[in-house]
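We were asked to recover a plausible sequence for a given structure. The inputs and outputs are reproduced exactly as logged, with field labels preserved.

PROBLEM: sequence recovery
POSITIONS: 455
GIVEN STRUCTURE:
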């Protein structure tokens, strides 16, 4: 977990304004602040309100309280803030919002071609679900629609789902759960306010958005357990934990088999988070040699998310923690390895992390193996914590099988799974290894003292 005391907010003055010439100014922080005679406006990237005007090439005109830009067309005004966010293009869109931010946006090619229009405001209490493959956003009340997000490729990385807006608000009590094969990028030319939660987390064997992609994990994925014969009835070793920012724990061998542990996945994620991709899953546990018996499922990987804005305020939770490895219902089978944490990248001119703001990319715990006589499902590993730095516990019920290893946090390495106890008789299944930690990177361009990458 990364948690910080509140950073002071920078009050941005308007350059080029003479103190001897007072101007009528109203600075907005969200489009909800912009209203004139009942008309709703847009809070532009320079902090001034604009309103619809078909006479302007951009379709928008600044209001009368916009300093030097007052009553001028957006895109043709002086734009004392250093460039406007809405320059019309030949295809009817707008460009320049990325340039107006004043920094190069990582992982997003041709950003200047993306339209930055309107706001994204999610205020319903409950869980929203976003699918990065279908672009469908489902609301807590059951309604759903296909968003206008765009799919972009990145160099040497997976496709991204990119959502753009002027301002983004996730209210307290609102949770956005993101699934799918593509990492999620959210760009705001104005302010991004997160009081609720954005989760690209693993949940059991299910990976978060952009996690455990076949072409990217390679050696980062935990090794599968195998059937090992101790001289009597065969059993299964535990699966290795997934690796990303740190290595996963090893899955334990079958007790008294003389077999080898199942290696955890190695470090596979770049500290720069370029390209953007998620973590890697844990390996599945080994079975006991019968066709019907399977080991525990590997834990899903934490996904990948990139949040970019002019001002980014975090008072809620952004998490890419991994899922827990599965338990088993077949005697002598091995538990699944925990999934690794994924990737969280924040980039803004000013990142403000409030005391209640939390960033996590913890590994999931490994699943418990089964003993010689087990007839009940053993305990699965816990998912990596979304809101604390406590390690995810490995499965450790009363079956007598091997216990799962705990997942990694920034302060603790992933733990190896354990062999079954001697009292489990010959052939007890091994516990799955814990998942490695993910990578968190914060870039605050106006703040040289912003926290360094965490992994």
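RECOVERED SEQUENCE:
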């Amino acid at each position: 977990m990364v948690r910080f005391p509140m950073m002071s907010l920078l009050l941005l003055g308007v350059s080029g304004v003479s103190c001897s010439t007072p101007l009528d100014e109203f600075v907005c922080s969200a489009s909800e602040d912009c209203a004139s005679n009942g008309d709703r406006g847009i809070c532009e990237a320079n902090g001034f309100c604009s309103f619809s005007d078909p006479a302007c090439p951009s379709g928008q005109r600044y209001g009368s309280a916009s300093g030097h830009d007052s009553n001028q067309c957006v895109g043709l005004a002086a734009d004392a803030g250093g460039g406007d966010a809405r320059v019309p293009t030949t295809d009817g869109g707008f460009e320049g919002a990325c340039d107006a931010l004043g920094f190069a946006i990582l992982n997003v090619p041709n950003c200047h071609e993306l339209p930055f229009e309107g706001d994204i405001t999610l205020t319903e209490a409950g869980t929203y679900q976003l699918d990065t493959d279908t672009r469908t956003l489902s609301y807590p009340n059951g309604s759903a629609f296909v968003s206008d997000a765009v799919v972009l490729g990145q160099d040497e990385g997976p496709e991204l789902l990119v959502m753009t807006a002027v301002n983004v608000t996730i209210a307290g009590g609102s949770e956005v759960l993101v699934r799918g094969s593509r990492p999620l990028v959210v760009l705001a030319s104005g302010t991004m306010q997160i009081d609720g939660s954005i989760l690209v987390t693993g949940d059991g064997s299910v990976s978060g958005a952009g996690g455990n992609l076949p072409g990217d994990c390679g050696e980062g994925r935990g090794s599968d357990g195998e059937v090992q014969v101790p001289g009597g009835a065969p059993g299964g070793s535990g699966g290795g934990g997934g690796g990303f920012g740190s290595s996963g724990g090893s899955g334990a061998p079958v007790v008294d088999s003389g077999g080898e542990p199942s290696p955890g996945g190695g470090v596979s994620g770049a500290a720069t988070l370029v390209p953007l991709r998620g973590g890697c899953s844990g390996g599945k546990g080994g079975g006991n040699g019968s066709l019907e018996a399977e080991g525990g499922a590997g834990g899903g990987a934490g996904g990948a998310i990139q949040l970019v804005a002019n001002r980014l305020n975090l008072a809620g939770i952004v998490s890419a923690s991994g899922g827990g490895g599965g338990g088993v219902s077949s005697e002598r089978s091995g538990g699944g390895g925990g999934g690794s944490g994924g990737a969280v990248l924040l980039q803004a001119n000013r990142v403000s992390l409030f005391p209640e703001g939390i960033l996590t990319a913890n590994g999931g715990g490994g699943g418990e193996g089964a003993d010689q006589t087990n007839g009940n499902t053993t305990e699965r590993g816990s998912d990596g914590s979304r809101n604390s730095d406590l390690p995810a516990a490995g499965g450790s019920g009363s079956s007598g099988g091997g216990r799962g290893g705990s997942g990694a946090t920034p302060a603790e390495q992933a733990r190896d799974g354990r062999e079954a106890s001697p009292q489990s008789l010959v052939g007890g299944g091994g516990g799955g290894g814990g998942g490695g930690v993910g990578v968190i990177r914060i870039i605050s361009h106006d703040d040289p003292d912003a926290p360094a990458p965490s992994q």
